Amino acid sequence: MHPRLATDLAQLPELLGTVGERAIDILDRLPDQPVVPPLRLPDPEPLPERGAGLTEALEEFTQAWAPLLSASAGPRYLGFVTGGVTPAALAGDWLTAAADQNPTSALDDAAPELERRTIGWLRELFGLGAAHQGAFVSGATMSNTVGLAIAREWLGDRAGASVAEEGTAPLGRVQVLSGSPHSSIAKGLSMLGLGRAALVHVPVLQGREAVDLAALERALTQVDGPCVVVANAGTVNTVDFDDLRAIAALRERYDFWLHVDAAFGGFASLSLNHEHLVAGLDAADSICIDLHKWLNVPYDSAVQFTRHPELQVRVFQNAAAYLGPLGETPDHVHLTPENSRRLRALAAWFTLRAYGRDGHREIVQRNIACAHALGQAIKTISGLCLLAPVRLNVVCFTLAEYPTADRLADLAEALKHEAFLTPTTYAGVPALRAAFSNWRTTETDVHRLTKALIDSLNHAAPSL
């Protein structure tokens, strides 16, 4: 064994204790460190010929790189839709790395069964019936893509062919209808060989991001043959929801696969005042839900559900002698593009076991309350205005006068010490959005952001 490896192995208990101390330092700084630090990158170095050992590597990371990382796990990182990591999820993730399991095959251990049981808990959490089978994937983009891949096979069935075996030629021109599709839908269609041009944008309701049902039905009448409808349970800008039950009811008259992108909006099922927004989710043929958002487990973790596991296996089955037969309960290697990956379920298992439905409901409801509090505060701040109602956990707002992209970028830059917000454009207007999904966030953080907004406007750069 290499002497550095031998030394680190002999000292591993002490070294892991030091790593734990460094991790606690990172977590302890989250409430007060700059949310986005100034970048002063260290000079590049060539690959070391002789390693320094874990102690020196840890020291270099602590001094040179840790101070340059954003507080993305903290309470005022409100960009994108970014959760943090609950204490239990952190423990689960550490143990995931320590055990280093590949749960895609059941030949050697119980990891695949742990994943199945965690999927079962998640199915209950989101109010889905037993017909929905699930699999872990890396994030919402992969979850949407897997759902669309299964839909592609369903389209092949309707054409009397298997796309998995014969390719896409039998499909002809595919149409995928959606009101406000996430960018990952077009990306998935590109990867699947269906093409971005397959995506048909259906008109939305006036002043909304939800699809106009009458317009959707008109579009369905113009489709020659079966198609795919992508519905939204929580849009990115304003967390708007399509009427899932009404869309599902259209299948009585039209032949289409219903995929629901519920990446973070699916968690509305945990809020007693908002669960009606996801009524009808169970009727979907496939569903995307991103766990490293509102479940507050580490990147990368999402889940994909479908009512058609037989089609899923047809797409993703992996034939190799060393894997053994498919069997009645296919291994995870036959459910997603990955042949190997980490035990993603363990962090989710830990946080669900530790805090249960009521603990995660409290996180969701507190985040929603924080979003509404910020929305109310923005209404009182001279120079700002809301662009849309606060429906769930995202606040979309802009400058009351001359809201250009440059001026919004300057405002976001001025806030970075206290909070990180991401830019967007809504209804043609440049804007900022604050997304609340971190388990640490409280109204105290809303007050700090409100004060930072007021101070930034009062001491504005010339562009503001």
UniProtKB/TrEMBL annotation:
Organism for this UniProt entry: Actinomadura darangshiensis
Gene3D superfamilies given in the database record: Aspartate Aminotransferase, domain 1 (3.90.1150.10), Type I PLP-dependent aspartate aminotransferase-like (Major domain) (3.40.640.10)
Single GO biological process annotation from the record: carboxylic acid metabolic process
Cross-referenced PANTHER family: GROUP II PYRIDOXAL-5-PHOSPHATE DECARBOXYLASE, MIP05841P
Lineage of origin: Bacteria, Bacillati, Actinomycetota, Actinomycetes, Streptosporangiales
Membrane-spanning segments: none
InterPro entries: Aromatic_deC, PyrdxlP-dep_de-COase, PyrdxlP-dep_Trfase, PyrdxlP-dep_Trfase_major, PyrdxlP-dep_Trfase_small
A Pfam family reported for this protein in Swiss-Prot or TrEMBL: Pyridoxal_deC
Cofactor(s) required, per the database record: pyridoxal 5'-phosphate
GO molecular function: aromatic-L-amino-acid decarboxylase activity; pyridoxal phosphate binding; transaminase activity
Protein name (Swiss-Prot/TrEMBL): Aspartate aminotransferase family protein
Modified residues (N6-(pyridoxal phosphate)lysine): K293
Keywords per UniProt: Aminotransferase, Decarboxylase, Lyase, Pyridoxal phosphate, Transferase
Stated family: Belongs to the group II decarboxylase family.
